[in-house]
Amino acid sequence: MALSQDEFGVLGPLVVRREGRMVPITAAKHRIVLATLLLGANRSVPAGDLIRRVWGEVPPDRAAQTLPVYVMRLRRALGDPQLIHTTPTGYRIDLPHDALDLHRFGDLAERGAELAAEEDFAAACAVYEEALGHWRGTALADVPSESLHETEASNLAEQRLRVISELIDVKLRLGRCDEVIADLRRLTAQHPLREQFWSQLMVALYRADRQADALDAYRQASTALARELGVDPSDGLRSVHYAILTGDPALHQPAANTWAPVSQLPAPVGNFVGRGAELTRVTGLLTRAGATVVVCGPPGVGKTAFATSVGHAVRDRYPDGQLYVNLRGHSTSPPLPTAAVLARFLRAMGVRADHIPVDEEQLVRGYRARLRGRRVLITLDNAASVEQVLPLLPGEPGCSVVITSRNELRKPLRATLVRLDVLRGDEAWKLLARSLGPEAAMAQFDAIAELARLCGYLPLALRIALGNLVGLPHTDITSYVDELRGGDRLAALAVDNDDTAAVRRAFDLSYAALDADAARLFRLAGLVPGPDFDESGAAALLGASEGEARGLLEELASAHLLQRVGADRFAMHDLLNDYAVDRATDAGEDVEAARQRLFDWYLRTAVEVGDVLYPELRPPAAPPTMSADAARAWLTAERPSVLAATEHCASYGPLPMAWQLIDAVSGYFGSHGHHVEFVRAIGAALGAARTVGDPDAETAMLVWLAAEHRNLGNLRTAQEYLGAANPSGRTLWLHAGLDGVVNLELGEFPAASSAFDRMMELSAESPTNAYIRIAGLAGWGALHLMRGEFERARERLAEGLELARAADGVNLEAACASLLGRYHTALGEYPQAVTLLRHALAGWYRTGARHARAEGMAFLATALCLGGEHAEALRTAQRSLALVQELGGSPRIECEVHNALGVVLRHLGKPGRAVAAHLRALELATACDYRYGVARSHLHLVRAMVDDGRPGDALRHARTGRDLADRGGFRAFVGIAAELLAEFGP
Questions:
Q1: Is 94 left (phi over 0), alpha (psi -120 to 50) or beta?
Q2: Based on the domain organization, do 273 and 394 belong to the same domain?
Q3: Phi/psi at 15 (5° precision)
């Protein structure tokens, strides 16, 4: 694009045009100085930066004296001595915003993104193309500065590629697939490690009816990544590949973007006043992506409200989403662990639970990779230190970060610092007056001003004061202020140089207005380890009834000393939390007794929940009174608090409660995808058990760690944890049961049969615990099925089902029913299979066993399909796939789901899509060493490939399946393979 009057260009060779004529800058070092100034146009560029750009890291002795000479010659060449200014620290070039091609490029790129977000794709395409038209080649092409090219030029090149990718997305949305294929061929050749270009090329080829070429592009991408980086394609690229294999209809939609924008920002704070200058400054900084802003200030000054307001103001600038987390950096509870925050963010961004690693370094890499090429605003609220936030910073220039903290968090963050102070007097008056109403505001103007002064003009203090005033009839603010101002108590709290003194004065005013019971609950609420609590938790703290606690919670919420975070849950600001703990100490409160009551309630309720949902793990001492729905709801609500209590007990005692809490809830937590947090809590409980020297507790924690790794598909790791255990007592049968299941899934039948034999022996030694025998029978039934010993499987499973019904062992009853359903499916008795599988699903729905439900639905889909109910089978298979992808978990289960989907698709006359489903199942089974699934997938592929017109490939899979079945001892599969070879072989 041609440059016009008085314009400068860095997006290519350096160009200067003054008053319509070209101005040559012939000296190389002069070009370096000018380019550096242009890249920092309208900002002061330190002399040290200019010296480093011109001479490198080891400049000559006279560099500082030479630099002004270069600047003087540049001024002469540019013909305007006022164009480049000397500043206290360096130099600044002042230009109109649109005089530099870099600025015009950035503005147009942002406008293109806005138009694309508004779905005006034609206009977005034109604007993006205009933006890219400002590029005339490699940025700074004739500027011989190594450091400029390593940093600035490479960053500019990255911005250009991002805009190119966005332009291609828009063209794909417009259906211009043929047009972009040639460009994408060139881009993938030039940038073979950029998966976004490969993904776009695959989509474009597929939409152009070139499926084979699209799959070949995936193979090229895989080869390049393996050769250059030694890694596999990312989840995003693999999902596009799988969608092409299965003919996913979503690929025919205008876009093929797997990203789902997320918005986690809290709702804007009502009655937000003031901060106009700060809001303008920060929203201006965030107008351009890639900013990092630290908002600091004293406690209670409104940092969270400010950051939330900023986030909502710039949402349109970050169309890919807004992430938010309260890091609890200054809470009495431990700060949120980095791994937990990263796992939470990854889940919010659509990453499946089984694809979220446990290792923190891998979490950081996965988080930054997920943000690559995106525009996301990340708000890190209530940070304690730089170390806490560094792993949470994105690696992408398109994302921005807002951090709030009491501290300035300077080095090594490269952030803009914005400090919030208390409100001005008029702003504080306005905040109070808006809530009290115009009549009270005008009639008691001076009293409101005095109340604002008494609260130190601190927003949190002002809102707490309002809690005692709003809604009172005939509010007499003057009397209220006079009453609370009396005595020396307030002056005693006004500590010099304490920036929390004002807010603590306000706290004391509101605290003094509470009745004795509400004040006691307020003091004790500071002991809650998790983020929130309900009336039952409050009652436990007090040692009172829930009815009493409910009324006191309402009183505290009305006084703004607690925040409502749901219909029946309450939270406390971290500063109020500190204050509550201080008041508890001053009042001589027995905090340990209160904490013990709370933790006893957690444990007591968790045990009852376990009795309802997983009675097999610990036979109930008495019939539970809680319903299954209530049990699941309690665990969902109290999960963070129970895990926090576990870690507290593991650190401070009582140590046994740490593993007791884990033992009570492990069956549920292990099936709901919160693997990172749960593994951390189990690890803490394991440490407590080892400290005490309790071998049974240590074995139980090792078993739960093994169970978690089995859920994640890490069967060998699960085996290692089981091997490290030394079971005794109750843990003997828990250990034997999981040991048998893990070995069964690995196809190691001798070890599995030995484990199930141990269970049968243990059941004979403990005849009162029927669950041990039922679990052993279920294990043996599964082993017989995999071996093809169908009649022996039926005998064991029928006995197990009868015993489970009599013992009310809902999960074991469901397991036996599901396995019997598979038995009837294998024998072609589909109606019986469907009835049993539906019964199993009902049981697992009651207990919340989501992994088992996903697998059960897969087997139900197969039985329905083979019984002729194809439409219902497809719906069931799709629900199963949706659940397993939402939940994550075992690749073994996902393998079964894809095999079931393949069976259904083949019967619906879609053999190509069936082949793709079975290939995905084969890939999953191979990755987790699920040998039974590998053999099954090979054999399923035979009929699908024959129907798809690929008899040669079908024959190879039949032979491979036969060999694997023979080596693995899968006798039924050996017979199926022989039939297939006889039918389709030469």
A1: beta
A2: yes
A3: -130, 135
By CB atoms closer than 10 A (0-12, 13-18, 19+), residue 18 is middle
Q: What distances in angstroms separate CA 754 from CA 570, 761, 786, one per listed residue?
A: 51, 11, 16
Find how far residue 271's CA is from the centre of its chain.
Answer: 31
Neighbours of 523 (CB within 10 A): 24
CB-based contact 881:860 (threshold 8 Å): no
- Cβ(841)–Cβ(860) below 8 Å: yes
* CA–CA dist 854, 898 (Å, integer): 11
Q: What is the pLDDT of residues 873-898, one digit of tens each?
A: 998 998 888 787 766 557 888 899 99
- Which of 776, 803, 843 has its CA nearest to residue 613? 843
Question: What CA dihedral angle connects 406, 409, 415 and 419, to 10 degrees?
Answer: 30
DSSP 62-84: THHHHHHHHHHHHHHHHT-TTSE
**pLDDT tens per residue across span 743-802:** 998 889 999 999 999 999 999 988 888 999 999 999 999 999 999 999 999 999 999 999
* Full DSSP string of 192-238: TT-HHHHHHHHHHHHHTT-HHHHHHHHHHHHHHHHHHTS-PPPHHHH
**In a shared domain, residues 538 and 404:** no
Q: What is the pLDDT of residues 525-559, one digit of tens each?
A: 989 988 889 999 999 999 999 999 999 998 888 77
Residues 6+ apart with CB under 8 A from 607: 618, 664
* DSSP structure class, residue 568: S
Angle at 527 between CA 525 and CA 533, to 5 degrees: 55
- The span from the CA of 273 to the CA of 655, in Å, is 48
> Is residue 314, in this structure, part of any structural domain at all?
yes
d(C-alpha 248, C-alpha 916), whole Å: 11
Helix 810-826 to helix 850-866 angle (10° resolution) is 30
Q: Does 434 share its domain with 576? A: yes
The answer to whether residue 865 is domain-embedded is no
Return mean pLDDT, the chain: 84
Task: Report whether the peptide linkage leading into residue 654 is cis, meaning its omega lies within 30 degrees of zero.
Answer: yes
Q: What pLDDT sits at residue 256?
A: 31
What confidence category does residue 589 fall into, taking pLDDT thresholds of 50, 70 and 90? Answer: confident
Give the β-pairing of 15-18 and 7-9: antiparallel
Mean per-residue pLDDT for 722-726? 92
Count of positions (residues) in the chain: 986
User: Which residue, 395, 419, 443, sits at the end of a domain?
Assistant: 419
Q: Provide the number of structural domains found in the chain.
A: 3
- Can you tell me whether residue 9 is helix, strand or coil? strand
Residues 6+ apart with CB under 8 A from 970: 786, 787, 788, 932, 935, 964
- Provide the token pair at 430: 């306005």
What whole-number distance in Å separates Cα of residue 885 and Cα of residue 901?
Answer: 14
User: ∠ CA 850-855-857 to the nearest 5 degrees?
Assistant: 90
Distance CA 584, CA 535 (A): 20
Q: Which residues pair with 45 in a beta bridge?
A: 91
What lies within 8 Å, CB to CB, of 19 at 6+ separation is 5, 6
Closest by CA position to 345, among listed 391, 304, 410: 391
Backbone φ and ψ for 27, nearest 5 degrees, come out as -75, 130
- Domain end point (choices 153, 172, 206): 153
Model pTM score: 0.61
Domain coverage including residue 529: 425-611
For residues 700 and 728, give the distance between their C-alpha atoms in angstroms, rounded to a whole number.
Answer: 10
pLDDT at 491 over 50: no
C-alpha to C-alpha distance for 294 and 402, rounded to whole angstroms:
6
Q: Residue 363 half-sphere exposure, CB side, CA atoms within 13 Å?
A: 24
* CB half-sphere exposure, 678, CA atoms < 13 A: 27
Task: Tell me the CATH number at 125.
Answer: 1.10.10.10
* Cα→Cα distances 318→104, 160, 194, 243, 308, Å: 20, 18, 22, 28, 14
Q: Could you tell me if 502 and 461 are in contact, meaning their C-beta atoms sit under 8 angstroms apart?
A: yes
Tell me if 224 is assigned to some domain: no
Q: What is the CA radius of gyration of the chain?
A: 33
